Amino acid sequence: MSKAMIRQREVLKTIDRFLGGALVWLFRPPKSISDQESLSMIRTILVIRPGGMGDALLLIPLLQAIHRRFPSATIEVLAERRNTEIFGLTPNLVSKVLCYDRIGDFLRVLGRRYDVVIDTEQWYRLSAVAARLIRAERRIGFATNERRRLFNIPVAYDQGRYEAENFLALLGGLTGELFSLDPDRPFLTVRTVPRGNPLSEQSGRAPITVLIAPGAGYPEKQWGPEKFRQLAEWLVENGYSAGLIGGPADIHLAGDITKGLPVQNFAGRTPLRETARLIATAALVIGGDSVALHLAAAFGTPSIALFGPTPPSQWAPPGKGHRTLYHPPPCSPCSRFGHIPPCPYDVDCLKRVTVEEVFAAVREILPVPILKPSGQ
Asked: Is the pTM of this model over 0.85?
């Protein structure tokens, strides 16, 4: 994420705190719902998802659970334009993705009536205000601040729980049932993944593929180009075919890491769907708290997660195939509801993760550089 986007995000948070906080109190709380029998009549469900791509990706298990629980219902998503590609990874799950940063889409949502609106935003008040403006009998959302008064089904939010599980709890609030995620069962497949591995084919070799994801939404979540460069060198020296992935904001960072190395650099060169294919067919993904790690969890690709200011219990891939490297000082994790405060210790928490322990984790997961079967 660019510095301009980070500044924009902080401005939006300030607007939400003052404007959103005031608007919340202008609405009367919606009437309570006690008739669980009418759940069988639910036919239209709107899911609101502001925020980053990682959050949108971890929302997919909730959408899948809604589809299983209400197979006859139409599911629509109201999200940011940048997240439409995420929902494109699950065709036929969502009937329509509408963008609230397109005025026409937002007005269309306001003109409709839904049986259920689920606001998956964790903190922002303006999202809850939008949910209150939309005509619906049932409004569900997290009770993290005064936004709770705009929902007739407020749900507790647990910052110590994996985020996909928090999202599933919203559906539990609606039905009174318990929904859980199997951490060892992938929740995404890419059936159009080409046979063989693109990185192996381009390098002319057939060792296992390790993907490095050096970028992250905040600079404080990035391990640093020097350490990633050392990692890339070590992988090459030890016979692992390495590739590097990332978005347009990671192009210069990726260039510094891969310069002069036989490492495939895909940063800024592949759309999300192609990046997803690479991750789905890779044997290992290494990176900080980013959408790449969430994609690894989604596809069941083993990962090494490098954590510092954000809580691994909430954001690191769960399951047996994943390793999290995290050495928190007393002040970590400091991230709260997507906000990382200025660090007076130069992000020492993440710098405590050494290249040597990453090497050891690679050896543990991939003792020898062999190719992952293409059908997985």
From this structure: yes
